[in-house]
Design a protein that fits this description.
Layout lengths: L1 E2 L5 E10 L6 E2 L5 E3 L15 E3 L26 E6 L3 E8 L2 H5 L10 E5 L10 E8 L2 E13 L2 E17 L1 H8 L9 E6 L7 E3 L2 E3 L8 E8 L11 E2 L11 E4 L5
Antiparallel strand pairs: 1-16, 2-3, 2-7, 2-15, 4-14, 5-13, 6-7, 8-9, 8-12, 9-10, 10-11, 12-17
């Protein structure tokens, strides 16, 4: 799910049923249910439905075979706690650091900016988030250029290294810290919105029962921070999410000094 509603969202409700709009009717347990036989991601959660903000921002590399570098903001996962019934999943507050850092689920138009490293000068690959804007011209650098490799397997590496101590400064100062005149591939940086802060992975499975219909409805209702449901036209998009979206503007930087 991607929040492009223009408002912070306090939670969502997902319901199984038939029809749309005023013609929607909730399903019964013998027709459709959210399965309890399914183990949602993360696999060790023991839950049949979970929500998580993207791993590239929050997550420990040791917990995933697909990552060698921890999430940019925290190594602990974060998302909404969920309450699941036969035909409804609803949020019940937050776990992890997202709310403490950014408040309620941000809309894509309002997320903070980041500094991205185009480590391979390839528009088809995701740029790596290196720093984020914390004030008018105040930035915090959390990663540096280079590689992080799998322990015991130096041939399996990923771009970027997490700093032990974060550095702060203006954008130009942060770029100067990152820039290496001896390696032109390390001179390609871009600023842009950290759009994954507006993206939420909601994991569940649906068990099909006795349906006398050719289709069914999965109805999602988003609630603004005021606790008033957003209009039905408010866009809350569903779709596949990338790790980090390509930054909007490239800035090639020469050697520092």
């Amino acid at each position: 799910m991607i929040n492009v509603s223009g408002q912070q969202i306090d939670g969502v409700t997902v319901e199984l049923g038939f029809g749309v709009g005023s013609g929607f009717t909730a399903a019964t347990g013998d027709q459709l249910t959210f399965s309890t036989e399914f183990s949602a991601q993360p696999n060790d959660s023991g839950l049949s439905s979970t929500s998580q903000f993207p791993f590239g921002l929050f997550g420990a590399a040791d917990d995933s075979p697909n990552f060698l570098i921890d999430g940019f903001f925290a190594s602990d996962r974060t998302g909404f706690d969920l309450v699941q019934t036969d035909t409804m999943i609803s949020t019940a507050g937050y776990y992890g650091e997202y709310f403490n850092m950014f408040g309620a689920w941000n809309s894509q138009e309002d997320v903070v900016d980041g500094l991205f490293w185009d480590f391979d000068d390839d528009a088809d690959t995701d740029n790596l988030l290196m720093a984020w804007q914390t004030g008018a011209d105040e930035w915090e650098l959390r990663r540096t250029v280079g590689e992080t490799c799998e322990v015991g397997n130096p041939t399996n590496c990923t771009p970027g290294q997490t700093l032990d101590v974060f550095e702060t400064g203006t954008l130009d100062e942060i770029i100067a810290i990152l820039t290496d005149a001896s390696d032109p591939w390390e001179d390609i940086f871009a600023t842009g919105a950290i759009e994954d802060l507006a993206n939420l992975n909601l994991n569940y499975a649906i068990s099909l029962g006795d349906i006398d219909a050719s289709s069914f409805t999965l109805r999602t209702t988003a609630h603004a921070v005021s606790a008033v449901p957003l209009p039905t036209t408010a866009p809350l998009l569903a779709g596949g999410l990338g790790l980090l979206l390509v930054a909007r503007r490239k800035r090639k930087v020469g050697a520092a000094g």
